Amino acid sequence: MMSTFSIAIDGPAGAGKSSIAKELANQLQCIYIDTGAMYRSVGYYCISQGIDYANEEQVEQALSELHLKLTLEEEGQQIFLNEKNISLLIRNNQVAAAASKVATYAAVRKALVKMQQEMSKSTSVVMDGRDIGTVVLPHATLKIFLTASVEERAQRRYKEYVQKGEKPCLETLKVEIKERDYQDSHRKISPLKKAEDAIEVDTTYMTIDEIVKQIIDLLKRRL
């Protein structure tokens, strides 16, 4: 790819956004900006510092204390919070719940969106989240909206937990995903929404390789 480009990937939790975005960035040799990890980092900071993440004022006051950096290492994308690698520490349900809450705060979104937009100005990027095509990168070269059935997304999460040695309840995961969908699509600030010019891709019956190939083909038509 000779031209600078940006790919915005949106969709509900468990649709495969992160896996697809990472593989796209790998094959296209560009930067992957993990927006979800950035919001998780804010949630993690609140939890680790004893800040009530349900208190918007307290979270807003803490923003000036956060310094985030994304790097590409041999082991993959890493995220640093105040020079500490927290890539593994932010991958649990407690942090996920905190991230979903702080993401509803205007000050948090404004601060992180500014960071994300700055990252995309000078280099080709792949970015995934829930408002990338509508808010963060409204002029992205290509906008993709990934979807998958609740059952499929729950199965994916179930397998992830099992691989980690955990024993989740599949039915509980389905309920949690439905609740997350409702919360994300009904929040007042930048709700989950498909951009008018986004191309919808249902990943329910597709492999990662098939999805990545389809998106790269779509990108080539735009360049």
From TrEMBL:
Sites binding ATP sit at G11, P12, A13, G14, A15, G16, K17, S18, S19
Q: Which residues form a coiled coil?
A: none
Asked if Phosphoprotein is a keyword of the record, the answer is: no
Q: What is its EC number?
A: 2.7.4.25
Q: Where in the cell is it found?
A: Cytoplasm
Grouped into one coarse class, the protein's main location is cytoplasm
Q: By its UniProt entry, which CDD domains does this protein fall under?
A: CMPK
Record domain Cytidylate kinase: where: 7-220
What's the name of the protein?
Cytidylate kinase
UniProt gene name: cmk
